[in-house]
Amino acid sequence: MRELKLKAMAKVNLGLDVLRKREDGYHELKMVMQSVCLYDRLTLRQRKEPGIRVRTNLYYLPAGPENLAHRAAELLLKEFGISSGLEISLEKHIPVAAGLGGGSSDAAAVLVGVNRMFGLGLSREALMERGVKLGADVPFCIMRGTALAEGIGEKLTRLPDAPSCQILLAKPKLHISTKSVFGALRADQLTWHPDLEGQIAAIREGDLKGMARKMGNVLETVTAAEHPQITLLKEEMERAGALKAMMSGSGPTVFGLFDCRKAAREAYEKIRKGSLAKQVYLTTFFAQNQGREERTKETYG
Length: 301
Hints:
By secondary structure, the protein is of the alpha+beta class. It folds into two domains: 3-159, Ribosomal Protein S5, domain 2 (2-Layer Sandwich), CATH 3.30.230.10; 166-284, Alpha-Beta Plaits. The chain has helices at 68-79, 102-117, 124-131, 138-143, 178-184, 196-205, 208-213, 220-226, 228-239, 261-273, 288-294, and strands at 3-21, 27-47, 52-56, 85-91, 146-151, 155-158, 166-171, 216-217, 244-247, 254-258, 279-284. The strands form two sheets. Strands 1, 2, 3, 4, 5, 6 and 8 form a seven-stranded mixed beta sheet that branches. A four-stranded antiparallel beta sheet has the order 9-10-7-11, with helices on one face. Strand 1 and strand 2 form a beta hairpin. The two termini are 18 Å apart.
């Protein structure tokens, strides 16, 4: 196989809780994670010349080992002693440094692609075990769909597909460091935690409104406190008809869930024309049933 085309899906956190800070410096997390149909496109091509080359449509993205897609390819090529060169063409659509897992999803797609391209025979679970070496979100980005994530995010339990809805994503013109957010968080001083068990029960029952009511993200206590645009975006979405709006990950992207397509479109147009957000998207959840159908059309789609 000389060329392979892939999609790398963004993710949102429907619920994000931090239970404690561990002795190793990481935080113990509990999250409900969801893939959404906003994606980067990757093309992998074998090259005669050895080495890995990354091309991207964004001039400011690193093309060397600092790029997670590059590191993902290097991880497998070195492990299996593959001497062929590899070119990765990366067409970015997921906002960068947005709390949407774009870099992790690119790395996940490259792991899946290199495994297929070179016939390595690794199972999904084996790829996920390697993926966590690149980042805590990478295993979920390999799994995709709806899942409970625990530990640092690498312990995954698949959940039924979340109830379908319209999702409005809006990223303010902010750069948020995940490391600095967790550094500022005082997990032992949190006085509120989202009801993720209640949210999971609502997902199992197909109850969209119940799932939305249980949304919550404790990292908002850090990011939203420092950046009022996040709270303003949440309020704007909910005034426009969102069942609930919340920050994804460590931010700054805010997403709102809508059960009315017309209201979602009107909110999209209003926020896109306003000053609160730089990048605005309207999309849907990625569902596993949908995934099986799409994979017949495009690899890892």
